[in-house]
Write a structure and sequence with these properties.
11% of the residues lie in helices and 33% in strands. The strands form 4 sheets. Strands 1, 2, 9, 10, 11, 12, 13, 19 and 20 form a 9-stranded mixed beta sheet that branches. A hairpin with a 2-residue loop joins strand 12 and strand 13.
Length: 463
């Protein structure tokens, strides 16, 4: 990175969240809803067929059908995958709120019967947002995240930095792999592809891939790329990271109050080719407070970052750039935005995940050999319906689904586009019954208890 000779007198730090948006910069026991192994009692039914949901009278079931028609692909005039599928036979159907419905299903897969849970959200009458623990580098159980925002339902989100066994003495940050946008605010950018956690990416996928909902209330797939710079009197320099647990080789990263109090030591470990590569010893940090450099140090620090403050961290060539370009007392301006590849509509929320369906078709190269407990999110009906899926853990429902099988299941429930989210012990789906103060965990997480996660997708009913 070399200066281009431009200068700036601005003293603000700005982050942007899409084409038009701009902003300034415990685990407990699982509540179970009944046994999950084996077929359900009573006959299975297709949502939209007119059969009553378990434990619900005719009026309630009829009210649920309109919201659940999307799940079975029977909505009049539906296009894409929903119009081409016969739908998913559901064992149980519940209407949670206007525009929000919950269903359970059992399907045969390559490794045996798999039991799953689905939230269908009509985005014309309900909304979704990213739930976080209050910091990018933090974790919390899905139930806690949902209760904190009084969500009607939620499912766990992106893969995250869960362990640092390959870097002794370095604490895992709990930060997600991919981009995060919550309530229209960009919180972080994606780590380099080879630094991410989770299964290997299919051909053509990157850590920048997301599923999001725009301010037009439509869900869509996209790719969010960090575009940022550090402007100083000596030149302008490319920003290679934004509130992320891993920086690219030779890069400069910006960390704001959204990062939290976790150490930034992990950011200089690994490499562009290997997450397990060692940690750089050539590092440099600069603190920019209200547009002026106030501190400088060698090793990465930690602790809460005050509002109006940005910490710039460089590794290797990036460290050399910071040493040469910024001195205490200098003015500096840091700007960062997540640039969408496809949409011109700003995002209300976005979560990282690699695509398993595009336009009703699975991308080439999806893994068809490894079955696991899965979480997924998808959209149908031209983005008007959001689908959130979670499977029961392996102990209750066999070995789960392969990624290729997951794509098929998402298509059957009505999705045209879908992404794979964090699975295994992270897979959790919760719902809140009307009038209840707390959510209930509807699936059986692997291990019998919720795992704290980096983020979740929350669903909210219109008031």
């Amino acid at each position: 990175m070399t200066p281009d000779g431009r200068t700036s007198s601005s003293t603000t730090t700005t982050t942007r969240t899409g084409a038009r948006g701009r902003t300034r910069t415990g685990t407990g026991p699982v509540a179970r809803s009944g046994p999950r192994s084996g077929p359900r009692s009573g006959s299975a039914r297709r949502i939209g067929s007119g059969a009553r949901g378990r434990g619900r009278g005719v009026p309630a079931a009829a009210a649920a059908l309109a919201a659940l028609a999307a799940l079975a692909g029977t909505l009049a005039g539906a296009g894409g995958a929903a119009a081409r599928t016969a739908g998913m036979p559901y064992d149980r159907v519940e209407r949670l709120a206007r525009g929000v419905t919950y269903g359970e299903f059992t399907v045969a897969a390559s490794q045996g019967a798999v039991h799953g849970h689905v939230l269908a959200v009509d985005l014309r009458h309900a909304r979704a947002d990213l739930l976080t623990p209050g910091a990018v580098a933090a974790r919390a159980a899905v139930s806690r995240l949902a209760d904190a925002r009084h969500a009607v339902g939620a499912v766990n989100g992106d893969f995250f930095d869960i362990t640092e066994d390959q870097h002794p003495g370095v604490a895992p940050t709990g930060s997600a792999d991919g981009p995060e946008i919550a309530s229209g605010r960009a919180l972080k950018a994606a780590v380099p592809d080879r630094q991410r956690f989770g299964p290997a990416l299919p051909p053509g996928a990157t850590a920048e891939d997301v599923l999001g909902v725009g301010t037009d209330h439509r869900a869509r797939l996209d790719r969010l790329t960090l575009t940022g710079e550090v402007r100083t009197a000596r030149g302008t320099y490319v920003l290679g990271g934004y509130n992320q647990y891993a920086l690219p080789d030779g890069g400069i990263g910006a960390y704001t109050s959204a990062w939290g109090a976790a150490s930034r030591a992990r950011a200089v470990c690994g490499s562009d080719t290997s997450r397990g590569a060692g940690c750089s010893t050539d590092t440099y940090e600069v603190v920019v407070r209200h547009g002026r450099v106030t501190e400088a140090a060698g090793p990465p620090g930690g602790g809460a970052i005050p509002a109006g403050t940005t910490v710039l961290l460089g590794r290797d060539a990036g460290a050399d750039t910071l040493r040469a370009a910024l001195r205490i007392g200098d003015r500096a301006r840091v700007a960062a935005r997540l640039a969408p590849a496809a949409s011109r509509v700003p995002y209300a929320f976005a979560v990282g995940g690699f695509p398993v369906l595009r336009g009703g078709q699975p991308p080439a190269g999806l893994d068809a050999g490894t079955a696991a407990t899965r979480t997924a999110a998808g959209s149908g009906h031209r983005g008007r319906t959001l689908y959130l899926l979670a499977l029961d853990g392996g102990a209750e429902a066999g070995a789960g689904l392969t990624v290729a099988e997951l794509a098929g299941v998402m298509r059957r429930i009505g999705a045209d586009d879908a992404v794979d989210l964090d699975g295994g012990g992270s897979t959790t789906l919760v719902t809140r019954a009307a009038g209840q103060p707390a959510v209930t965990v509807r699936n059986h997480p692997s291990g019998g208890a919720e795992r704290p996660v980096a983020n979740a997708i929350g669903v909210f009913a219109d008031r």
